[in-house]
Amino acid sequence: EVQLVESGGGLVQPGGSLRLSCAASGFTFNDYAMSWLRQAPGKGLEWVSSLYGYIGSTYYADSVKGRFTISTDNGKNTVYLQMNSLKSEDTAVYYCASGATSFGDWGQGTQVTVSS
Fold first, then answer.
1. Which of 4, 28, 66, 89 lies 20 to 30 A from 19 at CA?
2. 10 Å Cβ neighbour count for 79?
């Protein structure tokens, strides 16, 4: 059974940083692309970033480029999202998912709130 479990969300002030983690089980992590998506209050789902572990390529939405970094620890079967210079508009529930253009398995989400 595939499971994705996110952690690391919380309340942070504007300009602060958080690191989200997504622990995966039930599949060989490095054989897949992994992504982070988010949903802000009252808005639709927004793709944030993807990583193709098997070729080492990363991609970012323009809204987070230069501020967020996606990475993996294949030994721990975990994907991370380092978020720096956070803004109020980054407030959302963040999800990790398998895939990059279509998304198969999803985590339960972790809340990130950016507020003073």
1. 28
2. 29
In the numeric block, which tokens belong to residue 2? 């595939």
**Which residues contact residue 55 at a Cβ distance below 8 angstroms, ignoring those fewer than 6 apart?**
none
Q: Using CA atoms, how far apart are residues 114 and 73, in angstroms rounded to an integer?
A: 26
Quick one: how many helices (H) and strands (E) in the chain? 0, 10
Please check whether residue 65 is in contact with residue 72, taking contact to mean a CB–CB distance below 8 angstroms. Answer: no
Three-class secondary structure of residue 89 per DSSP: helix
Over residues 94-107, the pLDDT tens digits come to: 999 998 888 989 99
Which residue shows structure tokens 């996110």?
6
Condensed to tens digits (0 to 9), the pLDDT of residues 38-66 reads 999 999 999 999 999 778 899 999 999 99
